[in-house]
Design brief:
Number of strands: 17
Strand content: 35-45%
Shape: elongated
Number of helices: 1
Strand order of the largest sheet: 4-1-9-6-7
Mean pLDDT: 88
Distance between the termini: 50 Å
């Protein structure tokens, strides 16, 4: 069993969404990801789990201004670490949501300091194992871009003249470009801004 609650908010909307459980080993006996519907009071119940290691994520159906601050199981962090479930699994999952997603805007230019129209912009979290935090966009004809619904935290911003869909999730691919990323601390509930130079793929 578990609950979803709102942290530090006087405006507490009815809660909705799903809690999704993904086995770290997709070949395990728990290969079918269980899904739990969240009630209006924030409570949910997960059925059919077997002992193993899992990733726990909350999928919201409400406004995007909220982000997941914490997910704990018996006070253990299972948002940033695997959920190691053993025994009967009789503990409580506590999911804390918070108001404070933000935007990142900026402009991309090429090596000649020209507007990089159509450049692929990707924002990667310092915690690369959190694909739910990845963001991407395409620069407009003036090289301007905007990324929305960003969870506050530490990131690196990259710009490519071209990038195949999904390449940003490939650690072997991104390894060659780490030095070209711009570190940025994304601040809660603010519009952050950063301009960036495009890197050309070899």
């Amino acid at each position: 069993t578990g609950r979803v609650r709102i942290d530090s908010s006087s405006d507490t909307p009815p809660l909705s969404g799903t809690v999704n459980i993904y086995p770290i080993d997709p070949k395990s006996s728990g290969r079918t990801p269980p899904t739990a519907k969240v009630g209006a009071d924030g409570t949910f119940r997960i059925l059919g789990l077997v002992p193993g290691e899992y990733v726990v994520r909350f999928q919201d159906e409400q406004t995007s201004k909220f982000y997941t601050k914490n997910i704990t199981y018996n006070a253990n962090d299972i948002l940033n670490f695997p959920w190691q479930l053993s025994g009967s699994g009789s503990g409580i999952i506590d999911i804390v949501r918070r108001v404070g997603t933000t935007r990142l805007t900026g402009a991309a230019t090429n090596a000649r300091s020209e507007n990089a129209a159509g450049a692929r912009i990707v924002l990667l979290p310092e915690a690369r194992f959190r694909p739910d935090l990845y963001k991407s966009s395409v620069a407009d004809r003036n090289g301007r871009f905007a990324l929305t619904d960003i969870v506050p935290g530490e990131y690196k911003l990259f710009a490519f003249d071209s990038l195949a869909t999904g390449d940003e999730f490939d650690p072997n691919f991104m390894k060659a470009y780490e030095a070209h990323g711009y570190p940025i601390h994304v601040i809660e509930s603010m519009t952050n801004s950063m301009d960036i130079r495009v890197v050309s793929k070899p």
